[in-house]
Amino acid sequence: MSKVIHVAVGVILGRDGRILIARRPDHLHMGGRWEFPGGKVEAGESVQEALTRELREEIAIDVEAIQPLTEIRHEYPEKTVLLDTWWVTAFSGEPRGLEGQETRWVARDELDHYQFPDANQAIIEAIQHSKVTG
Ligand SMILES: Nc1nc2c([nH]c(=O)n2[C@@H]2O[C@H](COP(=O)(O)OP(=O)(O)OP(=O)(O)O)[C@@H](O)[C@H]2O)c(=O)[nH]1
Ligand SMILES: [Mg+2]
């Protein structure tokens, strides 16, 4: 039994309704695929704190408002993740990949054109069914 890795994931909504995606660096798990920015929740940290920290570290924005989107548990052969996924409906700063990641704003109905980790299919469906529009 491997333990579940708790991950805070942000679906960042731009003013025009598009969503920010970033390309995972090649050397990481699921390298080269697109993702929603975020990362592991550390000991003693709430998921909201982790989300705020990760989005500052990875894409240089300050989170100002979030809403719950979905929680996806997925078993990869090498690990099991719980993707605790939140809409980011307000933020300050201009997103840019601080770790060298390519970033891109994408319309909701174009998310299907990008290759994400396998766990993300369920997130994309939740986005496409969500009434949140910013
Ligand atoms: N951030 C993020 N992680 C995802 C997504 N989908 C998905 O399966 N994951 C998986 O969640 C796990 C943890 O995410 P991460 O690698 O971003 O964690 P992190 O930023 O803390 O990285 P670090 O361990 O290098 O410090 C990875 O195994 C990653 O493949 C996604 O959309 N966004
Ligand atoms: Mg990360």
Automatic annotation (TrEMBL):
UniProt key word Nucleotide-binding: no
Main enzyme class: hydrolase
Sequence intervals crossing the membrane: none
Cofactor: Mg(2+)
Enzyme Commission code(s) on record: 3.6.1.55
Keywords attached to this entry: DNA damage, DNA repair, DNA replication, Hydrolase, Magnesium, Metal-binding, Mutator protein
Gene3D superfamilies, A to Z: Nucleoside Triphosphate Pyrophosphohydrolase
CDD domains per the UniProt record, alphabetical: NUDIX_MutT_NudA_like
Ranges of residues in domain Nudix hydrolase: 4-129
UniProt keyword Hydrolase, yes or no: yes
Catalyzed chemical reaction(s): 8-oxo-GTP + H2O = 8-oxo-GMP + diphosphate + H(+); 8-oxo-dGTP + H2O = 8-oxo-dGMP + diphosphate + H(+)
SUPFAM superfamilies: Nudix (SSF55811)
Family the UniProt entry places it in: Belongs to the Nudix hydrolase family.
Protein name, UniProt field: 8-oxo-dGTP diphosphatase
Organism name: Microbulbifer flavimaris
